[in-house]
Design brief:
GO terms for molecular function: histone deacetylase activity; hydrolase activity. It comes from Pedobacter nyackensis. InterPro entries: HDAC_classIV (IPR044150), HDACs (IPR000286), His_deacetylse_dom (IPR023801), His_deacetylse_dom_sf (IPR037138), Ureohydrolase_dom_sf (IPR023696). The chain is α/β, with parallel strands linked by helices. The chain has a single domain, classed as Arginase, Chain A, CATH 3.40.800. Helix content is 41%, strand content 12%. Helix 5 packs across helix 6 and helix 8 packs parallel to helix 9. The protein is globular and about 45 Å long.
């Protein structure tokens, strides 16, 4: 059975005065339940991540400042909100959900995290609402335990996965691929193994054409596991994204990536990433499409 990480803390509100579309983390599983796509048996609630696993990807001094809530104010501003204990716990439960999801994916072919995609967190910094890098942590977990030997990270969030690129800059076993808005946050980009910068207002056809050309190239890395960051801030309706994909285009993007994984016998863990459309329904619909496509591709006979 395909598993989906979800925890009530995922939808925990940020400190007063800091708005963020956290409600989607409750609405996504709710919508999937309503449509009969999933049952309670599909969901699992992750426990907090163990410290030794955090430290496979993040420097101890940075982690100590997070867990003791002593991160300097300047660094908290870089993250985008002031720290509190529940936010740190939320982040380590998200990361544990991605680690456990990777293990489930090795069994079932695919697994999801309703949250995650915290790709702006580097080895010793947090940024852009990201404290810890969930997919980097899970990738290092698999490598450390000999459960994967060559990993591919496909990041199609509208923002470059700068933290992921930095963490794996000198790690030949992990290939980082990011398609992202060229003139969007983060304005100081890191170097992925393959970066495809996109012009503002790119259409479905142009975006999907670039993705179609790139996917076969990724096989040269000879991966045996894939992490996919499926942010829906690529939508034309997104207030931060600057791209112009339709819901149909975003859905086709997911189909292409997940079919690529299925066709090449690559287990894949999927984290949801960003989505900031003013109408929450647009965000939820696009994220739910990702789940539906994955379930269809990996569960069909």
């Amino acid at each position: 059975m395909i598993k989906i990480a979800w925890h009530p803390l995922y939808a925990h509100p940020l400190p007063e005065g800091h708005r963020f579309p956290m409600v989607k983390y409750e609405l996504i599983p709710g919508q999937l339940f309503h449509e009969g796509i999933i049952t309670e048996k599909n969901l699992f609630a992750p426990e907090p991540l163990e410290e030794n696993v955090v430290l496979l990807s993040h420097e101890k001094a940075y982690w100590d400042q997070l867990k003791t809530l002593t991160l300097p104010a300047k660094e908290q501003r870089r993250i985008g909100f002031p720290l509190n204990a529940q936010l740190v716990e939320r982040e380590i439960r998200i990361a544990k959900g991605t680690v456990e999801g990777a293990l489930y994916a090795r069994q079932c072919g695919i697994a999801f995290n309703v949250a995650g995609g915290t790709h702006h967190a580097g080895s010793n910094w947090g940024e852009g609402f990201c404290l810890l890098n969930d997919q980097a942590i899970a990738a290092n977990y698999l490598l450390n335990r000999g459960l994967a030997s060559r990993i591919l990270i496909i990041d199609l969030d509208v923002h470059q996965g700068n933290g992921t690129a930095e963490i794996f800059y000198d790690e030949p076993r992990v290939f980082t691929f990011s398609m992202h808005g060229d003139k969007n946050f983060p304005f100081r980009k890191e170097r992925s193994d393959l970066d495809i910068p996109l012009e503002d207002g790119i259409s479905d056809a142009a975006f999907l054409g670039k993705l179609s050309n790139a996917l076969p190239l990724l096989l040269a890395h000879k991966p045996d596991f894939v992490f996919y960051l499926s942010g829906v801030d690529v939508l034309e309706s997104d207030k931060l994204g600057k791209l112009a994909l339709s819901k149909a285009g975003c859905k086709e993007r997911d189909r292409m990536v997940l079919q690529f994984c299925k066709d090449n016998n690559l287990p894949v863990q999927v984290s949801m990433g960003g989505g900031y459309s003013p109408n929450i329904k647009d965000i939820v619909d696009a994220h739910c499409n990702t789940f539906k496509i994955g379930l269809d591709i990996f569960e069909k006979l």
